[in-house]
Amino acid sequence: MPTGKKTYWESFEETPLYAAIWTYLGYGLLVLVGHIRDFFRNIGLERQKSCTEPKLPNSNLWVYGSILLSEISALYLYIQMLEYYDLPKCEQDDTNCCYITGFVPLYQSWESFYTRNLYRRIRDCWNRPICSVAGATMDIMARETHDHGWNFNLTDKKIHVMNFGSYNYLGFAENEGPCKDAVEKVTNEYGITACGSRQELGYLDIHKELDELIAQYLGVEAAMTVPMGFATNSMNMPCLVGKGSLIFSDELNHASLVLGSRLTGATIRTYKHNDINDLEKKLRSAVVHGQPRNHRPWKKILIVVEGVYSMEGSIVNLPEVLRLKKKYKAYVYLDEAHSVGAMGPHGRGVVDYFGIDPKEIDIMMGTFTKSFGSSGGYIGGTKKLINHLRCHSHASVYSPTMPPPVAQQIIASMKIIMGLDGTGEGMRRIEQLKENCRYFRRRLHEMGFIIYGNKDSPVVPLLLFMPAKIAAFSRECLKRGLGTVVVGFPATPIIESRARFCLSAAHTREMVDKALDVINEVGDLLKLKYSRMELPQWCEDDKNANHLVQQH
Amino acid sequence: MMAIIPATWDMYDMFQAVIQAPAYHLIFEALLIIWIFKLMFSKAYAPNKTILTEKEKEELIQEWQPEPLVPDVPDDHPVLQAMNNNIISGRPDKVMVINGKSVVNMASLNFLGLLGDESIEAAAQKALSKYGVGSCGPRGFYGTMDVHLELEERLAKFMNCEEAILYSYGFATIASAIPAYSKRGDVIFVDEGVCFAIQKGLIASRSVIKYFKHNDMDDLERLCIEQQKEDKRVPKKAKVTRRFLVVEGLYAKHGDICPLPKLVEMKWKYKLRIFVEESFSFGVLGDTGRGVTEHYGINIDEIDLMAACLENAIGGAGGFCCGKKYIVDHQRLSGLGYCFSASLPPMLASGAIQSLNIIIDDPGMFGKLRNNCTLIHEKLSKIEGMRVVGDPVAPIKHFSLSEPSDDRDLDNRSLEKITQEAMQRGLALTPARYLEHEEHNLPLPSIRIAVNVKLTEEEIDTCINIVADSCQAVLSKSS
Ligand SMILES: Cc1ncc(COP(=O)(O)O)c(C=O)c1O
């Protein structure tokens, strides 16, 4: 069993120097060309193809004029570029011809510089529409662009690919089976919405059943749900702390936690990702020195962490966080969005993974969009906490309750995970996912890629570094039948662009092998095997264990 | 994602200043910088800076006691009681079952009666057997299904806009849209009666918020003129300060309609960008349900951004914004609730498409709804001791005490009792609930009555009689 602190293994291999240099050069070139092209757009030599605000004669022109000298020297380069980026042919959009006088522009022109000049070139790697269930495989609708990514048209073609991008950890994104049948039935009985908030006669019996089941699943006294995971954070955190309190937030926390923290009105301090020493240093100083200026003691201190970090693949060092919590009497808010269902021997999240009593965590939060193949989020904790939230949470007062079919999907899948359906299907999925993760990560390490994160985490980031490789990786994989997610700046630090794979219990060993072959091939093609790290010990162990099994 | 880049006027300003500055100024600045360095590296003089020993620190840590995480809420808190005593079984249609008893529903915001519609359920089930329930990813990462694109297109077409953007949750729609455009330093003029979601969006934007009195155009004008004066004083800042005007089409808290023609006039006069939140007017106002713009016969192009949730009249889930492409598209990279959350379950998107089909095919229902609204309004206003607030054509009626006492809790309790009485007589009502300490401008306590188009005239009569009887029973007892 990979539980316990002893086997906690995480790696963030350092970026090789030459990769970093090339990456910066790559961005430098892109930015330079971007500036030149913006200049040409501004003086009217190149047609504005982005859908921009109807413009007045430009007042920024002189600013550009002043940097003209430095840019003219790059003109030669630009002329060469023209061969690749032929000048626009499309007609001026008629709707853009009217002028809005006197309004302050809605966007500063440099605000969209990045979108216009960098993101646009590789836009096809995101927002790919699909027309099937986002299960182990999916059908992507092919798009085409005639103007270098400004606009896309859907074509009739469909590309059937393996899906290593969706957060379908336990494979409950299904369009058949017991969950679907149950949801179908509930849709007949309840319709698709509740049309009322929890406090204003929108609380159905199915919501009560769900609340109770979640509490049982998590092993806490009580729980409540919100129809959107993002809003679970942003609408409930303000009920917990306020002015005069202090929030310690991991620097890589999800946008919903950042927004939620900001809406509380409390002081927010971030600490280095998963760095317990940094956290302790700051906690200590906060308790000792109290609030800035008036030096009164803080009212409450809340530590906000995630279970599995979705961009790093790392797992929070929960035992240590809890040690600090006890020592400094802080409260802990744990967001298990990516870990609930996906981690731990019983699929109960990182708490289960570390073998910790869930009652030690003050606020257990998580979402249903991932492992449960549904939608929405929950908060679990003491009865006192949940009573408070039911009365005073923004979500209980101002927004409708969960649509009944969505609630039923959660109930059905949760019962399967808990084994309440009387089959071993839930355990099978949990085991399958665990095996897939270990195997997939080990093989990638063996191939020599730089892989971030914890050895047991179902989120596997593979480092690409250079901006051009982001698009190349995504496109080459797609061509070979593998759908995956790539992320770059600003979602990651500028040089740490990466591809991200999310494993699923729905992936069979053959599929994982096939995907690995694709990755291997593309990795060779794009020279992505940067790793100079020795193969970690656990990989050797796993490999030997596997050999033994095969020999028997 | 672009929201990370701080878009403030002062950067622009700085840039200009450097270019225009005369030489002596630059020399002065350089000297200043040298001086700062000198100060930094010279020994600090700190006479009474106490340095704590480790032991003292430990003691402080030992001593510190945090406040409890949450205050105590007893199990018999009235809100919890109301919630636990009124659990609905099955679908909250026009008639629903509470505690095994069948009651008429005037609480759910199901104005067009689409909640009980079987064709919507059939459409949702069809999508269920194709896509499953969850989309398992945000829109950017394989969470975009063809039905999402179709719904966006249909909504844009229905509203006569260039583009629509779909959110998975009504509350998050306007709350994400406002901070996507308005940043620190920008100015937002807001009606003080706006709903909680807008208030949260305003806070998230960190802009300068200027509330004007509810539906009071003179007050708005006063604020605009004030702003103009300020702009004249600092013209450089004014050049990069965006100004917004945020209103609701039909106010959820007041049940009245915004004076849109006047607001549009203000928009052009003072160069404001106007955002209209139409959660309660979309699918309600206008001859074909296109909302407050149709109600006043105003071209939708005059509105910069319109936002609405699909959870009320449409009987679905989620929300959307629509407007010109250059405006709406920006949210696809900057709308927090759009970028960082899983997309709407496809089966709910399919349901919403079917709802749109229904309201396009049968525009007669809007006339019927309006009749029901005015009828109920008229009858409610005849009930003694009570007062109905808002516009007669509004589908939500705030029904409050005509002589409220000074004690808000007392009034709340009376209204709560009225709803309990009504429930016993077979009519489900709900008090309008607010977070009293967090609302900006709290309205008077009220019972929020929702009008359903499917109510017949006889049913309305019975319901109103029940309301009257319940009011009388409670008010005569208390007086
Ligand atoms: C840590 C975390 N919290 C919350 C969310 C939001 O969940 P949902 O997609 O259900 O809105 C996510 C999803 O990406 C997440 O990663």
Keywords:
heterodimer, A: 552 residues, alpha/beta, 7-stranded mixed beta sheet, 3-stranded mixed beta sheet, 40% helix, B: 479 residues, Aspartate Aminotransferase, domain 2, 2 domains, 4-stranded mixed beta sheet, 20 helices, binds pyridoxal-5'-phosphate
Helix fraction of chain A, binned, reads 40-55%
CATH homolog superfamily of the largest domain in chain B: Type I PLP-dependent aspartate aminotransferase-like (Major domain)
Question: What Rg of chain B, in angstroms, do the CA atoms define?
Answer: 27 Å
Strand line-up in the sheet with most strands of chain B: 4-10-9-8-7-5-6
Oligomer: heterodimer
Which of globular, elongated, flat, extended, rod-shaped describes the shape of chain B? Answer: globular
Can you summarize the main beta sheet of chain A? 7 strands, mixed
Architecture (CATH level 2) name of the largest domain in chain B:
3-Layer(aba) Sandwich
By DSSP (H or I, 4+ residues per run), the number of helices of chain B equals: 20
CATH class category of the largest domain in chain B: Alpha Beta
Mean pLDDT of chain A: 87
- Cα separation of the termini of chain A: 21 Å
DSSP helix count of chain A?
19
How much of the sequence lies in strands of chain B comes to: 5-15%
Largest sheet of chain B: 7 strands, mixed
Q: Please mark out the parts of chain A with pLDDT under 50 across 5 or more consecutive residues, or reply none.
A: 1-5, 56-99
**DSSP strand count of chain B:** 15
Side by side, the strands of the main sheet of chain A go 4-10-9-8-7-5-6
- Kindly, what is the distance between the CA atoms of the first and last residues of chain B, rounded to a whole number of angstroms? 58 Å
Largest inter-chain interface? Answer: A-B, 130 and 124 residues
Task: Decide which structural class fits the backbone of chain B.
Answer: alpha/beta
What does this structure look like?
The complex is a heterodimer of chains A (552) and B (479). In chain A, β5 (246-250), α9 (255-264) and β6 form a beta-alpha-beta unit. Chain A is built from 19 helices and 15 strands. Helix content of chain A is 40%, strand content 14%. The model of chain A is unreliable at 1-5 and 56-99 (pLDDT under 50). Chain A has helices at 17-42, 61-66, 68-72, 75-82, 113-117, 178-190, 205-218, 229-236, 255-264, 276-289, 318-328, 350-353, 383-392, 394-398, 404-418, 425-447, 467-479, 509-526, 537-551; strands spanning 10-11, 137-144, 153-163, 222-226, 246-250, 267-271, 301-306, 331-335, 363-367, 377-381, 453-454, 459-465, 482-483, 485-487, 497-502. In chain A, the strands form four sheets. A seven-stranded mixed sheet of chain A has the order 4-10-9-8-7-5-6, with helices on both faces. Chain B is α/β, with parallel strands linked by helices and 479 residues long. Helix content of chain B is 47%, strand content 14%. Chain B has helices at residues 9-20, 23-41, 54-63, 78-85, 118-131, 139-143, 146-158, 170-181, 196-205, 217-233, 235-238, 260-270, 292-296, 325-328, 331-334, 336-339, 346-361, 364-381, 408-424, 457-478, and strands at residues 88-89, 95-98, 101-105, 163-167, 187-191, 208-212, 243-248, 273-277, 305-309, 319-323, 386-389, 396-401, 427-428, 430-431, 447-450. In chain B, the strands form three sheets. In chain B, strands 4-10-9-8-7-5-6 form a seven-stranded mixed sheet, sandwiched between helices. In chain B, strands 1-2-3-13 form a four-stranded mixed sheet. Chain B has a four-stranded antiparallel sheet with strand order 11-12-15-14, covered by helices on one side. The N and C termini of chain B lie far apart (58 Å). At the A-B interface, β2, α6, α8, α9 and α10 of A face α1, α3, α4, β1 and α5 of B. The complex binds pyridoxal-5'-phosphate. Pyridoxal-5'-phosphate sits between chains A (228-230, 233, 254, 256, 306, 310, 335, 337-338, 367, 369, 377) and B (340-342).
